Each structure stands twice: as structure tokens, then as C-alpha cells.
TrEMBL record, chains A, B:
<comment type="pathway">
    <text>Amino-acid degradation; L-kynurenine degradation; L-alanine and anthranilate from L-kynurenine: step 1/1.</text>
</comment>
<dbReference type="GO" id="GO:0005737">
    <property type="term" value="C:cytoplasm"/>
</dbReference>
<keyword id="KW-0378">Hydrolase</keyword>
<comment type="function">
    <text>Catalyzes the cleavage of L-kynurenine (L-Kyn) and L-3-hydroxykynurenine (L-3OHKyn) into anthranilic acid (AA) and 3-hydroxyanthranilic acid (3-OHAA), respectively.</text>
</comment>
<dbReference type="GO" id="GO:0097053">
    <property type="term" value="P:L-kynurenine catabolic process"/>
</dbReference>
<comment type="subunit">
    <text>Homodimer.</text>
</comment>
<keyword id="KW-0663">Pyridoxal phosphate</keyword>
<dbReference type="GO" id="GO:0043420">
    <property type="term" value="P:anthranilate metabolic process"/>
</dbReference>
<dbReference type="GO" id="GO:0030170">
    <property type="term" value="F:pyridoxal phosphate binding"/>
</dbReference>
<protein>
    <recommendedName>
        <fullName>Kynureninase</fullName>
        <ecNumber>3.7.1.3</ecNumber>
    </recommendedName>
</protein>
<comment type="similarity">
    <text>Belongs to the kynureninase family.</text>
</comment>
<dbReference type="GO" id="GO:0030429">
    <property type="term" value="F:kynureninase activity"/>
</dbReference>
<dbReference type="GO" id="GO:0009435">
    <property type="term" value="P:NAD+ biosynthetic process"/>
</dbReference>
<dbReference type="InterPro" id="IPR010111">
    <property type="entry name" value="Kynureninase"/>
</dbReference>
<dbReference type="Pfam" id="PF22580">
    <property type="entry name" value="KYNU_C"/>
</dbReference>
<dbReference type="InterPro" id="IPR015424">
    <property type="entry name" value="PyrdxlP-dep_Trfase"/>
</dbReference>
<dbReference type="GO" id="GO:0019441">
    <property type="term" value="P:L-tryptophan catabolic process to kynurenine"/>
</dbReference>
Length: 395, 395
């Protein structure tokens, strides 16, 4: 099954893009939407744009669009800042909810920035606070009554290995801990139901599967029953109950909007809002199933034709996100050779070749063409060329 | 003297824009610059944009452009996040530098979000930390050896009243405190020399006088001798010494870039980078002098022709930023009536009519035309109309 929405994207001729897990491609209409905000809104309305163009409502409005893809009810997601900032807010709010506890538990499969932000928070708070990091397979056992907050990324950024959101949230709650999920590699990739998981907080970014563009803002979900009590920690004026009253002291908004901080990035939000229309008329169940089918086909073809590569992702599709990783000692150079031939994946140290399967703009023909090129690169040692050895930076 | 750069802006026909202190107008070329990033960079390069289009270097590159307007040496300013976030980072770093002290001192003339962020930080840290807020005229006397960090906004957002950066920084240092300046209403408005002031940190936004557009990112300056020791607090991966090594633990970059947090807002930064070219070939001394001349003319004309208004800004131009505020009991409605007639200023409770004088795109003819319309609104009580009474939100 191919989703009938490939024509909603502007992909370069001759490129097979298997890196939507890092930066999604340009959806059609985004250029025009941003141009409208620049020329007609900012250019013509200037300061009045905040009112007449509804800029101030963007974070909540776009939050609802994102919320629908992760099983969040309207009014429980708000956009802003970066994922790292939203991780910090969720963790700080979680610690505040368990004042008798001192430990944040995460795992070594988490994206490093999440761990860094937790480190920073723990250092700020002093007084015996601790970040404890377990291996992903041990994290369930490490949940106990010392833990204030469990913070995990559902889909491992290197291997695609998935945690069971419902089960781990249940363990966290049974131990009296607050649960924070990072959905960076989940939102728009796999079926997520934050409400059913019953987690207190979820955060994520929008420049990967949601195709919001480089630097697109992050989102935060707050479970609705906590929206009037969760501490924002980064208590900026746009999270105030009445920002334009210019009160000398802070009163948080009685909603998820308390997690807003400063002035919203209007241009980035306009790009994202347009990008979200690429999801019109399709369901996450369809996307997830189509992604699984593409991934399974890729794994089967690579294993049949490229014995040099070792599957690093889980073989069981039910515990794998929409990306597939293979290990290869010359993975960095091989990925450069692939990229030079129009197949865009990425590389993660030490040896991970990572490929994302995003069925909004990929179909089986793309997958087969990519494997043809991969096989050619490997069988002919195309990676063994000086131009592919220099280390570069790819997020 | 008129600065010969008005043609670098796209202002709507018939609008006299005296609100550049809130949101700067659209500089020419911004639409094309952002379009290039969307269509040619994101659209064509996708993930490769991070390398081949130098997106990753934007925050430092644009930081240098901003730094030149505030007397900061290259490599001491970096862009990102919002001003509220940068306030938090500067305050947290300052507290860390004075571990034996517990008080942040600010004043009631500060922008509320700065105070809110300090409140949030103090609450996070617990353990007797305190935000102390003095009146602006008493703040110098309130600096003593209890104070860890003095945080002030140089130019009062309501009245334009200016603090003496050098003198207050000297008092702070004499008392052993760290100095943080918020330059939201200074950068691009008045001459600032952060290096000469010797302050440890300075922060500001770029959507006002720097014309970066709605949601443009903030900046932070770190005094060069502190760039290898200041604690970032919000320790995100892009402030790491080696973000793409994906280390499990955080090591800050050995430079101001440690104050970066998450993925930079590439579209907003592209808009800002183009907007900064409007400053090519002019100096802040010229801008400041031209602004003073426009403001003085405005004050003189208003006082001669509009006796209904009371000057709230300092009469002495040497202690006033580039904005002028008048008090009027019907100020809200009067401002709406002015806006309806093409003169755009803004209103701040309870009675402040605020006008900004930004000589990049304003000249004496604009000032005189604005006063004509203001006099007409006041003399004919044009503000006394039902359509001007509804409260709206203007940032």
C-alpha cells in the first residue's frame, strides 16, 4: 500500500530520501505560507499582526494539529522553544510533583541532549538530586520508590528499538513516579496514544517526521488533569495567565499554555502549520502500517543482497520505530558514498547506518532503488575512496 | 540629519511606524532570503543543509553581527531561544559564580518576564534563594554584599528611562556581585558598549530595533574571560563541546557557544541575518544621535500642540532610550484612534502612550506628520468613539 500523498512534497529529482527521521523534506505550500506571513502579515500589519493575524494563538492552534497525531485531546499540547527546553520543563515539573524524592531515571538509549538537560537541572537544584541512567533493557527493573521522574525516549534514535509506553508508564505509576516520554522519533512515525498511556508529560520535535523544517519548534503535552497545577519552571511571560497585564509577579495560565515561555517563532510556526496539512485525510494507523511494510521490505532485501551489513534494529516490527539501522565497520564512508549517489540516510557513531521509512513521500519503488544502490556501493567497495573519509556533521 | 537607509525597508504606504521598539518593520530582501533557505537549502539539500548551507554556524555568525552593535568582540555573542530563556541562563550562571550568596536583585522597571524567569529560577533552586525587587531609583543603594547577581534592563520598556550601565556595573562589582544587563530596548536603539561596562552577561531580543521579525531569536553575551567557565544551566546538546559525538554526559563548549541549547531556528535566523544588513555602513553613534534629534523634536511639538499629554519619559535625552512616552487618561482609546489613522505606536497600562523613534526608517517629516494626526485626535476627541474602547493585545 502506498499512501496517496507523495505529491504533497517537493523532493529533489533523483533523490531517495531515507532521512526523514532527522529532517523531513519540504512540503508543498510551505514557501508560499511563510512568504505570506513575511510580506502580507509582518510587512503590512507589523505590530498589529499579533492580533489580526492570530500569531499569538499559533502555539496552541498548531499544538492541536500535533496533538491529533499522538492521541492528545485538543488543548493539551502547546508549541514552542526546542525539545531540550521542553524536556527541562517536563522534568522540573515532575520533580516538583514528588517533593520527597530526588532521582530522575533515564536510560542510555535516550538522546544525549535529554540526559544533558537532566544533568543541568540536577546541578541547578543541588541538594542531593541525581540523574540515574540504566541500560534500556534494565530500565523497568530500575524503577523503584526512590524515583521521582522516569524520562525515556520511546524510539531509540540509533536503532529504532521501542519502549512499551503503556507498560513502563504503569510501572512508573505503580512506584509513585511521574512519567515523561520523549516522542522525537515517534510523533508522525508510529502510532502513539499519550492519553491511553496515562503519562503525565510528553515532549517532541517537529522537524523530523512532522516536516516542519530546520529549527521547527518543539511541543509539550501535559496530561489534562495537571494543566492547572504543573509548575512551568521556565516561567516566561507568555505562560502567564495574563501576559499583557504586565503584572510584577508570575501567575501561570490555567492551561497547558503555562508551558509557553517567550515570544513564539512566528515564521517557523507558519512553516510547521502548513507542513501539518500534509497529514490531512490520513491516519497514523495507515502511516505506521505503511512504514512497517517498507521497513520489512528493506530489511529483507538488504539481508538477501548485502551480507556485509548486520541488522542492529529489532527484527520484530512491533518493537521497532520507522527507522532501520545496520552496522558496518566502514559505515561512515559507505553512507557518504550512498549520499553521493542520491540515497540519503545518515550515520551514527560508531558504525550505525541509519535509514528512515516515511511513507508520506516514500514508496516501495524507492526502497528497491535504494537497495540497488546500496548493493552497488558495497559490492564494489565504492566507499573505499578518499572523498568519503572526511568526518562531517549530520544531525 | 536623516540616515540614508530608509529605502532598505518595506513600509506600508501611508503608515508612520513609531513602534519599532515593539516589532521592527520588514527590511527589504528578507522575504527572498528566507525563500532561498526554504526552496534552495531545505528543499534541495534537506539534511545536508546543516553542513553545506552552514546552518549550524548561523547562531555564532549572526551573533557577531549583533555583537558589533553592542560593543562586543567577535565570538562573545551567540543567538538562540527567546530572551526569557537567555535571562534564565545568565542568572543561573551568575548564581553559580557566587555560591556563598543567595539574592538576585532587580528593579520594578524591569520587563515582567525577566522577573518571572528569576522567580522560576529561585523556586527551582529552593534553599533560601531570593529575588529582591527595588524601585529603579533605589536599586543602586540596594546593591550590597548579600547580592549574588544584579539583573537590570538598561532602558525601561514603559518610559525609556535609562540606567547607567557602567556606574551600576561598577557598584555591583564593588559589592562582589555579578552583573546581567537586558538590552531588549538598547540593542540597535542606543549606543551600548558591553565590553566597556565590564558586565559579565548581557542578553536581548532582535525583533525590536534589529528588525528580525516576529519570533526572531534572542542573543546572549558572555564576557570573554568567562567563556570557558560560565555554567550554561540549560545544557543542551548544541552547547556541548562535541555535539555530534553523542557523548552520554555533558561537556560545555569552550566558548560562548556553551550557551546554545537546542536546534537553531534556521528560518528565523535567516530572516534576522538578512535584516542585519540594514545596518551596513552606519554606526550606532549616528543612529543614536538621529534618534535623539527625532525624539526631541517630537517632545517639543507634542508639548507645544498637545497639552492634554504629560511627558512620562525623562526630559534629559542622555538618560532616555529611543522611545518617548506620554501619559493620558484615555491613552488606550487615543492610541487606537491614532493607529486607525496610520500612526502606529502602542499603549502600556495604566495610561502610557509609547512612541519609538527609529531613524533607520523614520525622518523628521514622519515625526511632524505624526504630531499633526495626534493633535487632530486629541483636539477633536477622536478617541471618544466606541470602536476604540475594546481592549486588545499588543506586545
Amino acid at each position: 500500500m502506498t499512501l496517496p500523498v507523495k505529491d504533497r512534497f517537493d523532493l529533489p529529482e533523483g533523490m531517495i530520501y531515507l532521512d526523514g527521521n532527522s529532517l523531513g523534506p519540504l512540503p508543498k505550500g510551505v514557501g508560499a505560507a511563510v512568504q505570506k506571513v513575511i510580506a502580507d502579515e509582518w510587512g503590512q500589519q507589523l505590530i498589529k499582526g499579533w492580533n489580526v493575524c492570530d500569531w499569538m494563538d499559533q502555539p496552541a492552534r498548531v499544538g492541536n494539529m500535533v496533538g491529533r497525531l499522538i492521541g492528545a485531546q485538543d488543548g493539551s499540547v502547546v508549541m514552542g522553544d526546542t525539545l531540550s527546553i521542553k524536556v527541562f520543563q517536563a522534568l522540573a515539573a515532575g520533580l516538583e510533583m514528588r517533593p520527597d524524592r530526588r532521582v530522575i531515571l533515564s536510560d542510555s538509549g535516550n538522546f544525549p541532549s535529554d540526559l544533558y538537560m537532566a544533568e543541568g537541572l540536577v546541578a541547578l537544584k543541588n541538594a542531593g538530586f541525581e540523574l540515574r541512567v540504566a541500560d534500556p533493557e534494565d530500565v523497568a527493573d530500575a524503577i523503584n520508590d526512590e524515583i521521582a521522574v522516569v524520562m525515556l525516549t520511546e524510539v531509540d534514535y540509533r536503532t529504532g528499538r521501542m519502549h512499551d509506553m503503556g507498560a513502563i508508564t504503569g510501572l512508573a505509576h505503580a512506584a509513585g513516579a511521574v512519567m515523561v516520554w520523549d516522542l522525537a522519533h515517534s510523533a508522525g512515525a508510529v502510532e502513539v496514544d499519550v492519553a491511553a498511556s496515562n503519562c503525565e508529560f510528553a515532549v517532541g520535535c517537529t522537524y523530523k517526521y512532522l516536516n516542519g523544517g530546520p529549527g521547527a519548534p518543539a511541543f509539550i503535552y501535559v496530561r489534562p488533569d495537571l494543566a492547572q497545577t504543573a509548575t512551568p519552571a521556565l516561567s516566561g511571560w507568555l505562560g502567564h495567565a495574563a501576559p499583557f497585564a504586565f503584572d510584577p509577579s508570575y501567575t501561570p495560565a490555567p492551561s497547558v499554555e503555562r508551558m509557553r515561555v517567550g515570544t513564539p517563532p512566528v515564521l517557523q510556526l507558519a512553516a510547521l502549520e502548513q507542513a501539518m496539512t500534509a497529514w490531512d485525510g490520513i491516519t497514523m494507523a495507515e502511516v505506521s502500517q505503511a512504514s512497517l511494510r517498507l521497513s520489512e521490505r528493506f530489511i529483507a532485501e538488504v539481508e538477501a543482497r548485502c551480507p556485509q551489513l548486520i541488522l542492529l534494529s529489532p527484527r520484530d516490527g512491533s518493537v521497532r520505530g520507522s527507522q532501520v539501522s545496520f552496522g558496518f565497520d566502514h559505515g561512515y564512508a559507505a553512507m557518504q558514498a550512498l549520499i553521493a549517489r542520491g540515497v540519503i540516510g545518515d550515520f551514527r557513531a560508531p558504525n550505525v547506518m541509519r535509514f528512515g521509512f516515511t511513507p508520506l513521500y516514500l514508496d516501495e519503488g524507492d526502497v528497491l532503488a535504494a537497495v540497488d544502490i546500496l548493493q552497488n556501493v558495497l559490492d564494489n567497495r565504492r566507499w573505499d575512496a578518499p572523498e568519503y573519509r572526511a568526518v562531517s556533521r549530520v544531525t
